[in-house]
Amino acid sequence: MSGDSWNMLLLSLLGVAVAALVGGLALRLVQRRSLAVSLLLASLVPVLGVSLAVLLNVRQMFISDHDSRVTLVAVLSSAVLSALLSVLLGRRFARESRALGAELRTLGSAYDEGSPGPGGSPPPTVGPAPNLLARRAPAEIAELADQLVRTRARLDESRRREQELEAARRELVAFMSHDLRTPLAGLRALAEGLEDGVIDDPKPALARMRTTVERMAGLVDDLFELSRLSSGELSRRLMSVSVTELVDEVAALVDDHARSREVRVDVDTPEDDRLVVLGDSDELSRALTNLVANAVRHTPRGGTVRLIAYRGPDGRVRAAVVDECGGIAQADLPRLFEVGWRGAADRTPDDGGAGLGLAIARGVVEAHEGTIDVANVPGGCRFELSLPAERR
Q1: Using CA atoms, how far apart are residues 336 and 359, in angstroms rounded to an integer?
Q2: Are residues 361 and 266 in the same domain?
Q3: Domain membership flag for residue 345
């Protein structure tokens, strides 16, 4: 290369270096400003570098003054065009970013202010997000907007479930307060009667006290079991469990209770299939016992409760409990397994349950990777649990 070429190269590098230094400092100063300003500077810095290189080399190229002015005008025109495009692009990015930020602030404030009030009123839902994609935003902004829409939907679903759980918790506390306060009042009355000597024959009073204490102990046991299920601390001593034998054992276990209510318990199990599953026999027995006891309690005198065990077409082991309760309101079916929920008809004076039996049954079955369903059938309803068969 000739000496003039080296001079032109060095002058060009010098102009570009000066423009890069000035542009870097300017971008550092405005890094917390609007995106439009940064884009404007980013587009002007290369033009500034070219302009300085041209200004420094124009005399080295031995061109006329007229040609020099034409070159400078062309460079300045490019700089103006670049600045205009940068401003338009920056304003577009800034507008979409502000819109996205506004939606995020709306989402956050809605959930911050959406906590239940002192009266337990449910928080307002956030509602559907506006269609940010209709604004023809750039791909990155459009992707963020789409993520916002999906996040909003997940938060709405989470808030809905939170409201349902909170309502179930309040309902459970109210039921348990009633179910514990009533027997405690009876125990106090019996204790005062025995203490004051107004009860001539203490044996029936002591028997009633023992029965009441056993009922309260059952409530506490149900609460403890439900707490274990909710915390994931279910003890699962995995072993091969024959559902056929389990159904027979549960039927024998509730037979005395069923006879006292004049309800017959029929068992229908296959003779050539033990229907083996892998699980905790005690927990599965408790879940099935809760279903059968619930069926016996709601079946009128002279009725029949059927226990059916079979293998489904999908190979899963199924156990069904069919009662003659007369059916359940369709609107109440989805709530049957909620903690503490009981229909109005279930609130009878001799009802010894606390509305936890079905919730415990569902928790046990789900802990064994199974499912439990309920449906109305002619004359009653059918509870059916499904468990994966043990793999040989």
Answers
A1: 8
A2: yes
A3: yes
Percent of the chain with pLDDT over 70: 67
Report pLDDT digits (tens) over 260-279: 999 999 999 988 778 899 88
Taking alpha carbons only, the member of 355, 374, 354, 377 closest to residue 365 is 374
Per DSSP, helices labelled H in 232-335 are 243-253, 255-260, 281-298
The total of structural domains in the chain comes to: 3
Q: What strands lie across the sheet with 264-268, from one edge to the other?
A: 264-268, 304-311, 317-322, 380-387, 371-377
Domain, as residue range, for 287? 239-387
End-of-domain residue from the set 231, 257, 275: 231
Q: What is the pLDDT of residues 278-297, one digit of tens each?
A: 888 888 988 899 899 889 98
Q: Is 192 exposed, middle or buried (0-12, 13-18, 19+ CB in 10 A)?
A: exposed
Q: How far apart are CA 353 and CA 298, in angstroms?
A: 12
Q: Is 66 a member of any domain?
A: yes
